[in-house]
Amino acid sequence: MFRTTLAISLLVAGVQVIVCADDAPATPTEVELGALTLKIPKDWKQDSARKPLRLATFEIPAAKGDKEKAELAVYNFPGGGGSVEANIGRWVGQFESKGRKHRVSIGKAGDNQYYVVEVSGTYNKPVGPPIRRQTKPVKGSRMLAVILQLEQGVYFLKMTGEDETVKAQAKALRQSFGGSLKDEKEHKA
Question: What's this model's pTM, rounded to 2 decimal places?
């Protein structure tokens, strides 16, 4: 990976000052997944392993203080994948009720409506093959899941991981499909 460094040399009171912009935001990578094009930050790495039912899986670096990477899974199901309310209920239900917090918002990305489900608490993380339906409780987790309704079908984006990591990536997730928190409104089920 190449990183461009911008250096500006200033002469101030006879002292040369060099300002480097190494931390300038990198141009996102466009990833086409059927009718959906996502703009993925450069530090999100696409997993090349095929996983059942998924169009793509991305590993997201852990935030400072967190130990594990987060994961973004992208899905699209023939026939739609169920109602908005059924998916919201299923995602919220993947967290233990004790200490769980959640909110649902609705927004527009261009002409496309989307819903964002944010849940925090103890996540019942799937382990092993999905058919076994085995989980392990993981405290201090967060999920940010999106139902994106395109003319060509419904896409589901589900980011899960440690609380701070997922919170730190909320803006980038929305930007990946053209959404914006400031334009969202609370969704009443």
Answer: 0.83
